Amino acid sequence: MEPLAYLYVKKGLPFPVGACVALDKERYSLGRASKDVKPDLAFVHQCISRLHASIDIIEGKAFICDLGSKLGTEVGTERLRPHQPYPLKNYDLIRLAGEMVQLQFVYAYAEQTLDLNLDVSAMLDTATDAFAIDMHKRSCTVFNKPISLSEKEWNLLLLLYERRCQLVSTEDLIKAVWSERSPQANGIPDVSLTEVNSLIYRVRQKLKNAVKLENVRGKGYVLNLKV
């Protein structure tokens, strides 16, 4: 089935920060792998129970359930009672075993959508006090501090900045950022939505609230410099 939501890894080896996991089936298990237990999302820290928690998709909504783990599961500041499902909301922070694993839950296409008939010329700006970009030096500052960007993060940000306040389709984004990959029959490189979402998430994290990187459901993305 199509992913209903995504989990983004903020902390949890062996996954890198910003790794994106698509919730594309009715149950997704979280835990620590062993010879006999193979969770869908397996962490290596010994504090994580083998079957620590599960996320269930029920009638279009997501619920998390602690499976009797030794050190518990938290959503936000609330510790879950074992074996009792808890409804997840957009951008909920999930913690396993205290601070050992941190995951952010996001429903697919949860970001605020835009009115495409909006007069974008009224929104156009070239810089803000919080955000500045130097295309020649390939550098960017957020709240007057330089941020480190990988090549793909830079290429994504540059494309969106050059077409700021305009819709950039997901197809155009993939062609620009993953140009090294061989195109498919439709001319678009073979890149999954999970890869796109993971990259968007990492860039959003680095931009903080200096600018707004918005998703237009089923169409693409818009970088709005006026927050």
UniProtKB/TrEMBL annotation:
CDD domains, from UniProt?
FHA (cd00060), trans_reg_C (cd00383)
Q: Which residues form the FHA domain?
A: 28-80
Q: What residues are annotated to bind DNA?
A: 121-225
GO terms in the biological process aspect are: phosphorelay signal transduction system; regulation of DNA-templated transcription
**Keyword list, A-Z:** DNA-binding, Transcription, Transcription regulation
Is DNA-binding set as a keyword in this record?
yes
**Pfam families with a match to the protein in the record:** FHA (PF00498), Trans_reg_C (PF00486)
Key word Transcription regulation present in the record? yes
Stored InterPro entries: FHA_dom (IPR000253), OmpR/PhoB-type_DNA-bd (IPR001867), Sig_transdc_resp-reg_C-effctor (IPR016032), SMAD_FHA_dom_sf (IPR008984), WH-like_DNA-bd_sf (IPR036388)
GO MF entries: DNA binding
Residue ranges annotated for the OmpR/PhoB-type domain, each copy included: 121-225
* Superkingdom as given in the UniProt entry: Bacteria
Q: What is this protein called?
A: FHA domain-containing protein
